[in-house]
User: Fold Probable hydrogen peroxide-inducible genes activator from Dietzia natronolimnaea.
Amino acid sequence: MVNQRFVPSVTQLRVFLAVAERLHFRSAAEELGMSQPSLSQALATLEEGLRVHLVERSTRTVLVTPVGHQLLPFARAAVGAMDAVADIAAGSGGPMSGDVRIGVIPTAAPYLLPGLLPALSDRFPDLRPRIVEDQTARLLEQLRSGALDVAIMALPTDAAGAAGMPLYAEPFALLVPAGHPLDGRDDLSLEALVELPLLMLDEGHCLRDQTVDLCRRVSAPILGRGGSRAASLTTAVRCVAGGLGVMIVPESAVVSESRDPGLGVARFREPAPGRTMGLVLRTATADDDAYTELGSVITGVAQRLFGAVPA
Assistant:
């Protein structure tokens, strides 16, 4: 039976959420900026106060217990509510002041951040952005747990407790090795993917999922014929330049990588496939006008850097 006199702290709940997400104590501690002993002590105090075991620990694995899984959605809701209270209480400075934790997917961060960070400094001089680059699913978990304030990712997302604000759209193109027969084409059809050695990112990247969807539309081999895959888009681009295959990439990557003499570009005929990028927030803070202004800054940077179209 739960001790009715025990009330978990927000820090303890954040620790539980981080451990449940990462299933690794050191990674959870790094995410929260804590030492591992402090994190372990906070979780132990929470379990002692609740009189339940939330996770099972061994020398190699960490597992969430059944009761831990039952409590996860309530812990997320409690942390989200407390963050909303803090956001409203800090109204004098507004949400665009102090530390703001911004998540960005890996297929956007290298191309958007070089222009975005200076623009944020100009528009919000009191803002101290804290950038977290990670895959979509993990960004959403961190957003719901309160470890992030906002996230920049591809839409749509159907995550509970999160709301997406469309920012900009960008088309996809096909990166090919320089001198490839398709280099310079601007009338590419999706059917061309059927015979190409298509490179893929690892599981978990939304760009991989979008590429798989395009392949399925024309019955192209899902894994392509390249035999290579990469954990990051920048590594995959280097593989293309080295002649290991071709790859579907967003326009932002094309603009950034176009100076590489080892790369060529083929563009799809209209209407070209593409993606819509958005700003994702917890639903409790989604109506704040400051985030709308933040979204406008991001959209403006994307327009300037790689000709994105406002969504």
About this structure: Residues 253 and 259 are 11 Å apart (CA to CA). The longest strand covers residues 162-177. The mean pLDDT is 88. The chain has ten helices and twelve strands.
